[in-house]
Specification:
The chain is mainly alpha-helical. The protein has three domains: 43 residues; 68 residues, Serine Threonine Protein Phosphatase 5, Tetratricopeptide repeat (Alpha Horseshoe); 67 residues.
């Protein structure tokens, strides 16, 4: 795995060196002895631009090193050359990092690009729509937030934590609209999932203090 990560990190330069070496062999001998060097070099260079180094981000994301993840994203100079599903992931990751830095405008812009390109998995699309809904709530655009979060629930979410977060956001939106019966229904769904994320657990406790006292 480590070797593969090193190869991904340096494959552009390895590819250029192999292509140059192929040129030297071609000049001193003939084309066919140089062909394997040309071929492997071309694959490595094409892979750098077509697939990018996004695999390297996983390690940084898992360890919570957002600066490291951001550096990997910044190393992609020509994102439009990326294979379409990978380009979608690229913009989604940029949006996630912007959101963590509370750059809500940048987050929305990049996540929209990712969604427009189409996500490789429905659950990933659902998670992006949930985040777009949360961004809309930050902007106090409840109508747009509801649209995104309902779409996220329909598409499916990757785990019960995201699903519970979606139901809680819908609960808040319904309470804001004074649709108390719907609010209680979404709250029950969130609670039934038994999420363990501290922030979501705390939110459930806070809502539970007063939701039983409201009509509906």
């Amino acid at each position: 795995m480590k070797f593969y990560n090193v190869l991904i990190k340096y494959r552009l330069w390895i590819g250029i060196v192999l292509a140059a070496l192929g040129g030297y062999v071609n000049y001193t001998a003939s084309f066919w002895p140089a062909f394997p060097l040309y071929f492997i070099g071309l694959i490595l260079v094409a892979g750098h631009f077509f697939f990018g180094p996004l695999r390297l981000i996983q390690e940084y994301m898992e360890s919570g090193d957002m600066d490291g993840a951001e550096k990997v994203l910044a190393s992609i100079k020509f994102p439009n050359l990326l294979y379409k599903p990978i380009r979608s992931v690229y913009y989604t990751l940029k949006g996630n990092i912007a959101m963590m830095k509370q750059d809500f405008e940048g987050a929305e812009k990049n996540m929209k690009k990712g969604l427009d390109l189409g996500m490789p998995m429905k659950e990933a699309e659902g998670a992006s729509m949930l985040q777009m809904g949360m961004l809309s709530m930050q902007k106090n655009d409840m109508k747009q937030a509801e649209s995104y979060i309902r779409a996220a629930i329909r598409k499916g979410l990757p785990d019960k934590e995201n699903e519970a977060a979606a139901y809680l956001q819908m609960c808040s939106i319904m309470m804001n609209k004074r649709e108390f019966r719907a609010a209680k229904d979404f709250f029950r769904k969130a609670k039934a999932l038994r999420p363990t994320t501290p922030q979501i657990v705390d939110q459930i406790k806070q809502i539970e203090k007063y939701i039983t006292r409201i009509p509906g």
